[in-house]
Specification:
The complex is a heterotetramer of chains A (about 170), B (about 450), C (about 450) and D (about 170).
Chain B lengths: L34 E5 L11 E7 L2 E8 L7 H4 L5 H4 L11 H16 L5 H30 L3 H21 L8 E2 L2 E2 L7 H23 L3 H7 L7 H7 L4 H4 L7 H4 L12 E3 L5 H24 L6 H26 L10 H10 L24 E9 L2 E9 L5 E7 L1 H7 L1 H5 L6 H9 L3 H5 L1
Antiparallel strand pairs in B: 1-2, 2-3, 4-5, 7-8, 8-9
Helix pairs in contact in B: 3-4, 4-5, 4-11, 4-16, 5-6, 6-11, 11-16, 12-13
Chain C lengths: L5 H11 L7 H40 L16 H11 L10 H19 L16 H9 L2 H11 L3 H32 L4 H7 L10 H4 L2 H14 L24 H26 L26 E5 L2 E4 H9 L4 H31 L5 H30 L15 H35 L5
Helix pairs in contact in C: 2-11, 2-13, 3-11, 4-6, 4-11, 6-7, 7-10, 7-14, 10-11, 10-14, 11-13, 12-13, 14-15
Chain D lengths: L7 E3 L8 H17 L26 E4 L13 H5 L6 E7 L5 E9 L8 H5 L5 E3 L14 E2 L1 H4 E2 L1 H10 L8
Parallel strand pairs in D: 2-7
Antiparallel strand pairs in D: 2-5, 3-4, 4-6
Classes of the chains: A alpha/beta (about 170), B alpha+beta (about 450), C mainly alpha (about 450), D alpha+beta (about 170).
Amino acid sequence: MSDASPPANKADKTPADDAPEPIQHGPLGKALADKGLTLEALGDDAVGNETLGVACADLLGVAKALRDDGFDLLLSVSGMDYKEYRQSVTHLYSTKTYQTVTLKTDAGGDDTVPSLVPIWPAADWHERESYDLMGIHYEGHPDLRRILMPIDWIGHPLRKDYKEEDPRLVWNRR
Amino acid sequence: MTTASPAPELSLRDKPGFSDLQGVTVEHGLNTQDMVVNIGPQHPSTHGVLRLVTTINGEIVKDMEPVIGYLHRSKEKMAEGRSYFQYQPTIDRVEYLSSFYDHYVYVTAIEALADLKVPKRVEYIRMICMELNRITSHLLWFGTFLLDLGATSPFFYAFREREAIFKLFEDITGARMMYNYFRFGGVNADAPPGWLDDVRKVINELPFRFDEYEAIANKNPIVMDRCIGVGVTSYQDLLDYGVTGPSMRACGVAQDMRKTNPYSCYNEVEFDVPTATEGDVYARYKVRMAEMRESIRIVHQLLDNMPGGDSAELRKLEKEHAKVAEEIAAAKKRVTVAKKNEEAPNAADVAKMAEKAPELPFDYRTTGQKVNLMVFKPPAGEAFSMVESPRGMLGCYLVSDGTPKAYRVKWRGASFSNLTILPSMMIGNLYPDLMAIFGSLDIILPEVDR
Amino acid sequence: MNPYNLPNWFVWLHAQLGFNVADPGVQVLLVLAWGVTLFTLIAVVAKAAVVFMVLMERKVLAWVTQRKGPNRVGPFGLLQTLADGVKLLFKEDVMTPQQDKFLFTLAPAIFIFPVFVLFAFVPFTDFLFGVALPVGALLVFALSSISVIGMVLAGWASNNKYSLLGGMRSAAQAISYEIPLVLAVLAVVLFAGSMNLLDIVEAQRGPLGPLSWYWFYITPLAFIVFLISSIAEVNRIPFDLPEAESELVSGYNTEYSGMKFAMFFLAEYAALFVMCALTVVFFFGGYNSLLAGVALPWGGTMEATLISTPMIPMDGEMMPLGVWLQQTLHVPNLSWLLDQLEKISWMVLKIYTFIFFAMWLRGTLPRLKPDQLMGFSWKFLIPLSLINLFAVGVQRFWAYPNNSLDTLFNSITTHIPFLIVWAVIVFGGVGVFCMLMSRQLNAKTRKRFAAPSA
Amino acid sequence: MTNEPSKSQHIEAPADDNRVLSGLLEIGRGLKTVLSHVGREAVTLEYPEVLPDLSVRFHGRLCLLTKSDGTDLCIGCKACARVCPCDDLIQIEMHRDGDKKPVIDQFTIDMGRCIFCGNCTEVCPVDCIKMLPDFELADYSREALVLDKYDLTLKGEDADEWRRTHGLAPSVT
């Protein structure tokens, strides 16, 4: 939908005859890798947005490079729960080249991911939401507290293992 | 509201640069006291359940913090327990003023995941619905914006036109606001016969109505005084807060997904992206008013070029095709089991006939690939699809693990980001400017809280 | 001064009943009795007027928005306001413990009392009025500014921040708009030569018909300033900041319910009625008919009403219709009665025209901001009314140097120098003023536009 | 796809003309426009007396169509219950008789929780559960909003009429 490159080649998804090849960097990933940044190529998503895996330690560097490349609009920060680990997914948009790029950062054992607020102030509320619903801690966020749930809520509702076990909750169960 | 004002912690004159406020000079000799006003959660002009904890000094806003979440209905959690089709009706409620857009991002994400082809007629119907929905959304905005400024009549006028368009929606989807109409690879049902003419009738009328609105509001000195130079934002501010949509276009940047990343069939229609450079409330007003006219222009082109034309003609065509297909089937049957006293048709002729048999073009259909909604399973993968909703970029991040239920659905609501800029626009302005500025951002709380 | 009027009639009635009206003690009692009677009368008249105005407002707002308005209670919804009133009467009177109970209860009374007193000053006809004081015009505005104390009290005593803001706004607004209001009326007083409202009405009868009413004859500016200020004075859109519902929920009366709210509601509409009545009295010829003062072809001029103007040829001379009817039907005082009725009709018609205008404005215009509201008064209306006052002074001095009111409408030749002065001062002075104003406004706008943009 | 600079229609800032006089004129224009609405026909719908003109596809009260002879059309497949976004909204009790034919014992829908999305009508394989252009569902208790099979069923001729108006084959046997 929103890419200069043609839609994702589905060959990446369906297994080829032999063992799946390692996914190659797209044009953006290649450009970033050439700058000496450590990235993992994750191919394109179904719509055709390039997806890059970035480790926690490299996130700020990659983010800065992307912002300097023209990705000036932060669309969203989504928390993902893959049961074993949490992941922070950032969608960026370039108002110069009209491309969208996805950054995926696996949180460490303590569910901590560096905050992107110093680079895109727009990340503020999105990271608060991700913290609130998924329990990912954003290191360096100026004001990390709950945003959608009440401030005294227990647990992070979007986690897969979340149970409504707050004893204060009384609602009409049929 | 009944608690006493707290003691001032920070006097007005301690705050640096406070006297440089736009158009407002503060008498430093006065010993004034700050007052915290809780605007909302229930307030006539917060357009939903939003609470703005505002510190004011006299009428000047010193600080503001939006408190959201009063309308949180866990739409993202709901996706985990429901199949794709089962979840679909609930997303009408994410942004109920233009819910065709919600459906469109959701449906296109799934179509991208499952690699479904969509006929052109479907895209055209979807585009008509979406553009009409943009008009209804902007109309509601126009009415409530002027109501916030204090004018009552335009609200009713806007609702009158909105009602006419809702009637069209009711005709095609069966509902006035909660449509649940788009499907994976198609739409729920074809437009009813004569619907295209009805649409044409309504949108032919609209420009005259818009002229009336503009006669009332456009150059009204009170509207101009309250809007011009109020809530000015720079393009960099908007980027910093992730604000998109008409607010961004009011800063002179023609950022419109319909132009920059043409989805659906937007590269087949001709339209302009209205922009203004001032970046104030008035610029946003003008941009939205111009966008409604552009939407009408788009709908006119779509109506003229609709593949298959009106559904009455299409039904006739379908019937003819069905008749031919029946004849061929009968002939084929006769080839194999010829009756007594009857000459069996030549098998080669029948084959040629079958070859030449007209088939309804793919573009004319209202569903692409048939999808069994009960057991629909897109392959594992993820998609982030976006659309230019009336409020800005609306995104849906959909992760599928190959089961009938979505692993994760994340909504990127335009209002959620647009709301973040409000405090920085408000600080230093007057309290009544809040209504103009907040109104001009066109925020809808269900989309913020989801 | 017409001795045949309601207060005098009241005294006469008591003299007929055997009271010694010359006795000072009896006079005091009479004044008190008249006060009670008058207040009762006014309460009835004001409530009847308000009941009709509320319905009219809802109907007018419905018509301009293509709706039908109230049409459920009674024929055409005529009883809707009564039903609302009964509802308010039976509603719970909510008061929170945090409120200052005494002031909270006092505020509606302070708000409504001066408005009702103002009714006494309105000369509906030269018979039907409560009091006609030589300082009427002054007292009217002195009284009307008391109401605002009620609003401020209500805002303060409610212990609600919206109410407080509304109360403070109303105080600022009242102070700002009293000045142009009084300055505009000062021009009228200068021309009429009296502050008595009856005299002002009588003085507006001139050979130009409606054009010799003061809205045109002094300068239209005075009228415009008065109209705008009076709308601001009664807190109607576009100046309804004290109760701006999109900002302050309901402003100073947010916390009020039941009968206390009804009193605010009643007083607001009554104030609108009185303000429109004063507009008519000062600028629209009061109870004078449309043609009052116009020269008749057969000699003489039109009287205040059509019915008492000699227009029917009878035995070689012209006779008023009323007198003719009285003679034909042999009903005593019929002529006088019809004359009064026509005067009331003219008055009410004119008042409701202005009330309709206020409602029409409400349907059209948005609301100003407080700083714009203040700015509009101090930077625009007050200078404008000062210019106007100066112009009126010069007019008065040049056109009528001997300071004789009798020459005012003597002949058309006296109007020629007057009209020249009128045109030069009004168009010249005001034109220059407007140019200066717009330059200033535009400069401000330009500065605002210089704010950062892409 | 395209990176070409987007075409934009630029809106000029309002001109700096004489604000005082033009302002008065514009207020007059607004007043005129508002007053011009007075003669027009009111758009108010006087609801209880006049019912709104509803579309054929209107999403209203749910109903169960029957065959033309009045017997049950529902085959108890529970597809409707499975696609319903509201939990346990549609409840079906059924058994099979001697010929393995389905017999619907009870069919309840809680209209108090229905969101009128129309999902159930779309997946029904026999076009049995459908929607009526009826929105007057208010009642005095929540229990009264739970419609059972008797309340829902649209009998023979009515069902045929429904099918006729919606372009389906009128008689189903």
